Amino acid sequence: MFSTKQEKNKGKMLKKPRLWISRFLSQLTLDRARENFEVYLPKIDRPASKNEMVELSSKVDAFLICHSEIISSDVAKNFNKRLKIIANHSVGTDHCDLDALKSIGIVVTNTPDVLSDATAEISMLLLLGAARRAVEAQNIIKEGKWNSWSPSFMVGKQVTGQRLGIIGMGRVGQAMARNARGLNMQIHYHNRKRLPKEQEKGAVYHNSKEELLRISDFLSLHCPATLETQEIINKKTIQLMPNNAIIVNAARGKLIDEQALIDALISGKISGAGLDCFVKEPGGNPKLSALKNVFMLPHIGSATEKTRDAMGLRALENLNAYFSGKRPLDQVT
Ligand code: 8YV
After folding, report:
1. What percentage of the chain's residues is helix, strand, coil (to nearest 5)?
2. CA neighbours within 13 Å on the CB side: how many for 53?
3. 87-107: string of b/e by CB count within 10 Å (b at 16+)?
4. Residue-range definition of the domain harbouring residue 140
C-alpha cells in the first residue's frame, strides 16, 4: 500500500502495461513478457473471436497476436482507445486491416528476419517431397503395400541442377535461394524491385511474373498476400509454366487459386505441389488432400523451437520499444 500521494503516483508510473497474449507462445516468451508487462493469457489455445478481442481492447494496452486472430475493419472500429499497439507474432500481417488500424492510431508490428531460415527449410522440404513423390512412397511402405520393386517404381523429378523460379525475393525468398544453391539449382526470380547484384548472387531477374513462370520447372512462392498477389497462381498463369512443373507454397494460401491447381495436378500439367498454406486454415482443402501428388503440411513453416523463441522475443522487443517511447523496429503502420 502507498502511504503518501507522491508514492501513490510513483506506483502508478511504475505500473506495467497490460498485455494480452492470444495463443500459447514459447515459455521463454512468456517469462520475458512478464518482466515488463502484466500478462493476460487465454485458458485454451484457440483463435480469439471478434467479440473477445473487442472486449479485451478495453482491458489491456497491447495485444500480442498470431495470424490466427483476424483483425478486420469491423473489429478495429470497435476497439477501445485503451489499446495502443498490436505486436504480431508473424511476419505476415494480412490478417490485420492495416488501414483501419492506422486510421485509429493503433501501431502494428511484425516479426521479419527471425523466421526466414525455418520457413525456407520447410519450403525445401516441400519442394523435395513433391518432386520425389514422398507422400505416395511413404504411404506405400507405411501401409504395408511395398511388395514389389522395379526400375520404373516411384520415379520422380530430379531437383539438382534444375531451374527454380522464386516469386518474392525478400528475406525468405533469399534464404530459399541459398538452400537451392546447395542443390546446384539455377535461381530465377521476380520481385517488385530488382535486388542489388551482391544480394542476387547470380540469380536471374525477370521483369514480369509471366516471364518467370515460363522457365520455372520449380516454382516457390515467397511474397506477402496482398490485393495484387491474390491468386497470382491461377488457370491462366499455370498454363504459362513448363509441363510437369512443381509448385511450392509456404507463404499464404490466398496466393493460389486452389481449384485451378487441383485441375492442373489432375491433368498432369503440374506434376506435384508442396503446400504448407491453404485458403482455409485450419483444415486445408480436402480436394487437395485427396491427390497423391500433393505433399501437404499444416502451416508449420516457422514452427521450430529456435524460431518460436526468436519470434516471441522479437515481438516483445517491438512492444518494449513502444512503451519506452521509441519507434518499434518492425512497425508496419
Ligand atoms: C506463423 C506465419 O506460423 O509469420 C507468419 O506470417 O504465417 C507463420 O510464421 C504464425 O503466424 C505464428 O504465429
Report:
1. 40, 15, 45
2. 27
3. bbbbbbbbbbbbebbeeeebb
4. 116-296
DSSP letter assigned to residue 281: T
* 328 upstream amide cis, omega within 30 of 0: no
Residue 14 — φ and ψ, nearest 5°?
-85, -5
Q: Are residues 98 and 134 in the same domain?
A: no
pLDDT, residue 3, reads: 43
In a shared domain, residues 66 and 45: yes
Q: What is the pLDDT of residues 172-197, one digit of tens each?
A: 999 999 999 999 999 999 999 999 99
How much is the average pLDDT of 279-300? 98
**How high is the mean pLDDT of the chain?**
96
Q: Is residue 116 within 8 Å of 172, Cβ to Cβ?
A: yes
Is residue 223 within 6 Å of ligand 1 at its C-beta? Answer: no
Distance (angstroms) between ligand 1 centre and the Cα of 206 equals 28
State the maximum Cα–Cα separation within the chain, in Å, rounded to a whole number. Answer: 87
- Give the DSSP H or E segment for 288: helix 286-289
Domain co-membership, 242 together with 122:
yes
Residue 86 shares a structural domain with residue 124: no
Is 206's C-beta closer than 6 angstroms to any atom of ligand 1?
no
Which pTM was predicted?
0.94
Residue 318 counted as domain residue: yes
Give the separation between CA 93 and CA 180, rounded to whole angstroms: 27
Number of compact structural domains in the chain: 2
Centre of ligand 1 from the C-alpha of residue 90, in Å: 4
| Residue 179 CB less than 6 A away from ligand 1 | no
* Substitution candidate for ligand 1 out of 65, 108, 278, 299 with most atoms within 8 A of CB: 299
